[in-house]
Amino acid sequence: MNLRVATQLTLALSFLLVSCSGEEIPRMPEQTWKDMRIGVETRPPFAIRGMNEIIVIASRGKRQPVNDLIVSLQIRNTGKWNQAIQDGHTGAYRRAIAVRDPKTDVLEVKIQHGEEEKLLEFPLHQQTIPVHASD
Fold this sequence. Notes:
Layout: H1 3-21, E1 31-33, E2 36-43, E3 50-60, E4 64-65, E5 70-75, E6 82-83, E7 85-86, E8 92-99, E9 106-113, E10 116-123
Antiparallel strand pairs: 1-2, 2-3, 3-4, 3-8, 5-6, 5-9, 7-8, 9-10
């Protein structure tokens, strides 16, 4: 089985498991840079004071993962960038960082693609359960 097929199967199984759980995952509003959509989730599902796992998800089009980025994270005004670890070829980048106050902290996400770089800001208080339009 080639890498692309394995990646697609992994993504499909992940989406299936999440959709079968019956629970929506809280997330912050997606942002775009170039042709990429950048989303952020936390574990626990809503950020709390203390250590939180931050998951940055990068995709193009309909769930096509972007796996050639360098992603770094920090809480605004801490002055400490932490490089996220790429989770296979799924477009997910993970890192645990300390949150001081989830009501006021802003997560800064630095995305590097080749020689280009973009800084995105995600206020942690904007985490919400996604609302799906009915058919």
